[in-house]
Write a structure and sequence with these properties.
This protein is α+β, with helices and mostly antiparallel strands. The radius of gyration is 23 Å and the shape is flat. The chain starts with a helix and ends with a strand. Forms polymers.
């Protein structure tokens, strides 16, 4: 006689072709959702604006205090550092892991509802199967938190895969082969360097340095050099517009007008910053990323090192779009062929 578990498994195998499948990258900076046979359907900042939780004390305190969500994604980002006293903008994911379980469940539920409204040939009464990317350094407790978020949001099955493998698969690279492939994933809150072979991780490591830390470095540089206080959104815009780590010979430097508050007078102030200054501001944080790459290369088996030298290093994540970071890694590691797959 078949057990309930085996019966459930047989039913799933018979009906699996009718299940809606999609992949989710629950990153510190953005939540990205790819829908089977449709491609990218969601790419939004991993932010939620909500009413602040009331701080109750005493016997009259309620058992739970639910914060009402007001905005998600880009709309929540517009409120960042502008919110009134009764609102707060929360980042549920920090350094690649869930830091606010309730906010993460609310955010994922919101986007899964949006995806569920997209017309599809798949029946909506069957819960979808989710393929979720996770850092290679994630713990079992953190994995359970990720599964819990998606199951609470309405997923029927959750499969966790290392982000480096997903990045390589997304680029069309043969991760199942015995040849080694090195992936440098520069996310919003962390950077991971992973060596992949035969569909698995051979060696890998990570640091809590990412795109958000680059923004903070720019913010502090402007504050120290010009006595100008700017917000994180402004710092990010500076990084995108004029940020560059290495200029080609004869290439003119980009400049940008930056507005903020003068720390000395408290009045509005305007300054002009150049790409060279931003390169100086980012130097320390970028050196941490380069050091991590060197550390993983030092742990790479000799047989796979030859593959890395032949195939180069793959860059992924939002931080990989920083101009010149490929040339810096190439110069520091002496490995040619540093490529951005995003």
């Amino acid at each position: 006689m078949l057990s309930f578990g085996k019966i459930k498994s047989k039913i799933y195998n018979l009906t699996r072709e009718f299940y809606w499948e999609f992949g989710v990258d629950l990153g510190s900076s953005n939540i990205v959702i790819y829908l089977k046979e449709r491609g990218l359907v969601v790419d939004e900042p991993s932010l939620i604006a909500r009413q602040k939780k009331k701080r109750w004390t005493g016997l009259s305190a309620p058992k739970t205090s639910l914060a009402v969500p007001m905005a998600f994604g880009a709309k929540a980002k517009e409120m960042l550092n502008r919110e009134p006293k009764h609102l707060e903008v929360v980042a549920p994911i920090k350094n690649g892991i869930i830091s606010d379980l309730g906010a993460a469940e609310t955010m994922v539920s919101h986007y899964l509802k949006i995806v569920n409204e997209i017309p599809s040939k798949y029946p909506k009464f069957l819960k979808p199967k989710v393929l979720a990317g996770v850092p290679c350094s994630i713990t079992e407790v953190q994995k359970r938190a990720v599964r819990s978020v998606f199951l609470t949001a309405g997923a029927g099955e959750v499969i966790l895969v290392e982000e480096a493998i997903l990045a390589a698969v997304g680029a069309g690279l043969p991760v199942g082969s015995s040849a080694g492939l090195m992936v440098v994933d520069i996310g919003g809150g962390k950077t991971e360097v992973t060596l992949v072979s035969l569909g698995g991780v051979v060696v890998g490591g990570g640091i809590k340095t990412g795109g958000d830390d680059l923004d903070l470095a720019i913010l502090n540089f402007i504050k120290m050099k010009y006595g100008l206080l700017i917000g994180t959104n402004t710092a990010e815009n500076i990084k995108i517009e004029v940020g560059s780590l290495s200029l080609k010979s004869g290439e003119p430097q980009k400049t940008m007008i930056v507005r903020g508050r003068d720390l000395a007078t408290g009045l509005p102030k305007t300054v002009k910053v150049s790409g060279g200054e931003i390169s100086e501001a980012l130097g320390l944080e970028v050196s941490k990323i380069v050091r991590l790459v060197k550390d993983i290369l030092d742990q790479t088996p000799p047989e796979l090192m030859e593959d890395v030298l032949k195939r180069g290093i793959i860059l992924s994540g939002a931080g990989a779009s920083l101009r010149g970071i490929d040339r810096v890694i190439e110069e520091e590691t002496k490995i040619e062929g540093i490529g951005d797959i995003d």
